[in-house]
Amino acid sequence: MTVGLDGAAVENALGSGRLGCPRVGCGGLLARWGWARERTVRGAGRLQPRRGRCIGCLRTQVLLPASVLLRRADGATVIGAALLAKAGGAGHRRIAGQLERPASTVRGWLRRIVSVAERVLAVCAAAAGEVGVEFVPPAPTAEPVAAVVELIGALARAVARRLGGSCSPWRLAAVVTGGRLLAPAGPDLASGWAMGGNTNSLWAAGL
Ligand SMILES: [Zn+2]
To answer: Which of 12, 93, 132, 142 is the most exposed place for a label (fewest CB within 10 A)?
Structure first.
């Protein structure tokens, strides 16, 4: 589960019962439940995510900050930069050189985003509806990475207009996909929406 918040805001939201269970149909609230293992994510620094446990279904959740994706050693903005370069026509070796990452790692990201692009596009469209922003979706294109980059950029601009201030496209992508932008089956259509009615204010605080 990804929350668009910094550590202090997560503590606050957990303590005051403002984070809802991400499980579809549960409706319970998350309470503090220790910490996940500490790790270093390139581009996001050292972090130790909070764990929460639902007081309804008793399942535990790792509360990932918006700067990281699930099970990825590189931060959301690093992976986003690779997708942006790919949309601009660069190949995986050149991107790997620019980002100083192994070519095989970058090739893995690009292959995965192509295989889950349809899911990502659907989740972004749902997110736009949920936040109540209107934007013109990108024209259907033969290039799925370019379509994802374009739609996430359009969504970030629309959210920034709606909430004021700025909105990082790749942090937003991490939030709306529940950290599953590059998960094997792609994002779950319901995964990014654990905060229900609080989503807008939480995004405003965290993005
Ligand atoms: Zn629950």
So the answer is: 142
